[in-house]
């Protein structure tokens, strides 16, 4: 059984930490534990939130306590790993034309590559969906090539539209709301990741993989009208 830490978070949640390094192996253990918690049917659990290396478990303090729930969770840690946790693979179209990729040239300059090479390296990588956070439908993905890693901008910039493809450090995400961001915008997709008028869940789920595919502005316009 891998090392883990269970600690209280406020009066109605506990955090189960399965590691400190973000990697697919640890995240696989996170998803297995999340599945085991759901399968266990513990009535006091209100919800679970899998993240990069941990699972947050919210519970009803009127039905259980931290210590009682910890004792219920610990046996789940020793359950065998799921043999195949492969999620779905999504192909996401992205346009890298200047009007859709306002930060592409600056990223290229900062890393000492041409915009074409940056685009090609970005497209060749495989991205894993690790968690949702910050805003509805914001799926945090890992997999940005090390040569393209950049820290977040010193200050957030307003005005970026829905569908902006953002990178910061090793992370990538696709915006679902028009809000300020300090991440670098290197493209835009016409794909709807989150339909706020629908009861359907977001397109991606933790454990899924994403492959980006280049499209031009004409293809973008056609796909955006579908």
TrEMBL record:
Gene3D superfamilies: 3.30.1360.40, Cyclophilin-like. It comes from the Bacteria. Residues 4-204 form the Carboxyltransferase domain. SMART domains: AHS1 (SM00796). The keyword ATP-binding applies. GO terms for molecular function: hydrolase activity. Keywords: ATP-binding, Hydrolase, Nucleotide-binding. This is Allophanate hydrolase subunit 1. It comes from Sphingobium agri.
